[in-house]
Amino acid sequence: MRSLAVVPAVLLALAAPAAAGAATGPWSAPQDLSGPHSFVDAPQLLAAPDGRTLATWRPTDGGGAAGLTGTAGAFRRPTAPGFGVERIISRPRDLAGRPSTLTAPVAYARSRTLVAVTRPETARGDRLRLSVAAGDTAGRFGATRTVAVQTHLRGPQLAAGAAGDAALAWWQDGLGATDRVWVSLRRPGGRFGAPRLLETGRVRSVSVAVSPRGDVLVAWDAQGSIRTRLRPAGARTHFHRTDTLRSRPPLDAIIRTAMTPRGRAYVAWTAQLVTEGGGIGAFTAEVAVRPVGAARFRPAQLLEEEHADVLLRAAPDLVTTGEGATFAWSGRYAGHQRVRVASTDAAAVFRGVTDVSPADGTDAVDPTLAAGADGRRVLAWTQQSGDSGGLNLAAYAPGPGAAFGPPEVVSAGPESRVPDAAVTRDGVPIVVWSARPAGSAVPFAQLRTFAQAASRMP
Predict the structure, then answer these.
(1) Which of 40, 97, 242, 321 could form a Cys-Cys staple with 449, CB 3.0–4.6 A?
(2) Bridge-partner residues for 206, per DSSP?
(3) What is the full per-residue pLDDT of the chain (458 aa) written as tens digits?
(4) SS (H, E, C) the chain
(5) Which residue from 440, 442, 432 is spatially nearest to 73, judged by alpha carbons?
(6) Phi, psi of 14 (to 5 degrees)
(7) Is the dihedral of CA 99, 105, 111, 112 positive or negative?
(8) How far is residue 289's CA from residue 257's CA, in Å, rounded to a whole number?
(9) CATH for 9-455, among 3.30.70, 3.90.25, 2.130.10, 1.10.12?
(10) Spatial separation of the C-alpha atoms in residues 388 and 141, rounded to whole Å
(11) What are the boundaries of each domain within the chain?
C-alpha cells in the first residue's frame, strides 16, 4: 500500500473548510472508536429499535502468521453525541490459534442481536465451524451454539425479522458441479435448527432476507442464473420451489436481498465474469421484484450494462423504505467508476438511475446504503484516487421519495475506506469506516489504523 499523493481539486474544494479534527459541513468531526492497529477491516453498523447504534470491526496487529486478529465494537446511546469505549468481542488470535470472524450483527425485538461466527477447525482452514451467538445492542454476546461444521464452507449470511425469526444461509464449495446452498432457520424464542439443503449445483454466492412478519428469502448465484426460494411467514420449514429469475446470464454475481413488511421481495445484483486466463466480461446491474402474493419474480430490470474490459467489483447495496426500495452500485461512466442509485415508484418499478458521486476523474467504490423508519436514507462511499483508499463522501435523502442531495465530505482521508452506514431510530445518519490518518508512507511497524465514525445533523 502507498499513501495518496494527489487528491483531485474538486474534492479538495469539498474538504477545504475542515481543519484536522473539525466537523466537515453537516457531518461531525471523526471520532476514533478504536485504539491504533496495523489494520482495521470490516467496519459494520447496526441501528437497533431501542435507539442504540452498535459498531463492530476487525482489528489486526502485526502481519503474516504472527499477526493477531480479533473483533471489537462500541455502541452509541440514543441522543448521545458519540460512541462509548471500545469493547473486545472476540479476543485476538494468530493464524495458528484459528481466529474467529463475525458476520454483521442483526437486530430483533427491541434490543436483542444475533451474530454468526466462523472459526477454522484445522490449521489449513478448509474445515469451518459455523456458530451463532445472541447478544444485545451494547455488543455483549453470549456463548456460541454450533449450527454446522463443514469443509469449504463459504459466505455465511445472517438476517432476522422484528419478532425474532431468523435465517442463516451459506454455500459449500464442492469444487465442481456439487456446490450446495444451505439454510438454518430460527423461530422466535427458539434456536437455529438443523441445516436444510436448498440446492446442489454450481454456486458462487448467497444472500438471505427475513421480512418483519417472518417470510424468509434465499437467493444464490447459480453460475449463469440467479435462483431463489421463499418460505412464507408461518410455515415451519416449507420453502416454495426454486424460482430461476429471468435476466441476463449473470456470472460471479454479488447479490443483495430485501423484504418489506407486507412480504414484497427484492433481489438485486451486480455481475461480471473474470476467467482463469484473466479475461473480463460485461458488467451488469439488475434487480427483480416479487409482488405480494405473486407466484414468482417479475423479469429482472437491467439498470446498467458495461462492456469495457475493466473490472468493476465494488459490492452493491439495497434497502427498503416501507414497500419501496433503493438500490446503489458502483458503475462506470467516462472511464471511471460512479456510484449510482435507482428507487422504485408506486408500482415497484425502478426508475431514474442517477449518478450521485462527482464526475471528477476518480473512482467511487464501496457504496453503502441505510434507511430509517421514516424513509430518510444515507448513501456513503469511498472516493478513491490511487490504490490505497481515499476520502469518504456521503449523500443524504431527507425522506421517502426524496432525491439524494449533493456529495458531502465525511472523512477527508488521506486513507479512509470501506464505510458502512446506518440511520438511527431518531433519524440521525451515521457512517463508520477504516481510517489511516497519517497514510502508509511509514515503516510497517509504525502503521496506525483506526475505526472511526461521524454523524450528520438530519
Answers:
(1) 40
(2) 220
(3) 223 323 333 333 344 333 333 345 799 999 999 999 999 999 999 999 999 999 999 999 999 888 999 999 999 999 899 999 999 999 999 988 889 999 999 999 999 999 999 999 987 888 999 999 999 999 999 999 999 999 999 999 999 999 999 999 999 999 777 999 999 999 999 999 999 999 999 999 999 999 999 999 999 999 999 999 999 998 877 999 999 999 999 988 999 999 999 999 999 999 998 776 777 888 999 999 999 999 999 999 999 998 867 777 678 999 999 999 999 999 887 788 999 999 999 999 999 999 999 988 899 999 999 999 999 999 999 998 766 568 999 999 999 889 999 999 999 989 999 999 999 999 999 999 999 999 988 899 999 999 999 999 87
(4) CCCCCCCCHHHHHHHCCCCCCCCECCECCCEECCCCECEEEEEEEEECCCCCEEEEEEEEECCHHHCEEEEEEEEECCCCCCCCCCEEEEEEECHHHCCCEECCCEEECCCEEEEEEEEECCCCCCEEEEEEEEEECCCCECCCEEEEEEECEEEEEEEECCCCCEEEEEEECCCCCCEEEEEEEECCCCCECCCEEEEEECCCEEEEEECCCCCEEEEEECCCCEEEEEECCCCCCCCCCCEECCCCCCCCEEEEEEECCCCCEEEEEEECCECCCCCECCEEEEEEEECCCCCCCCCCEEEEEECCCCCCCCCCEEEEECCEEEEEEEEEECCEEEEEEEEECCCCCEEEEEECCCCCCCEEEEEEEEECCCCCEEEEEEEECCCCCEEEEEEEECCCCCCCCCCEEEEEEEEEEEEEEEECCCCCEEEEEEECCCCCCCCHHHCCEEEEEEEECC
(5) 432
(6) -65, -40
(7) negative
(8) 10
(9) 2.130.10
(10) 33
(11) 9-455
Give the torsion sign (CA, 91, 59, 121, 254).
positive
Q: Looking up cell 478504536, which residue turns up?
A: 34
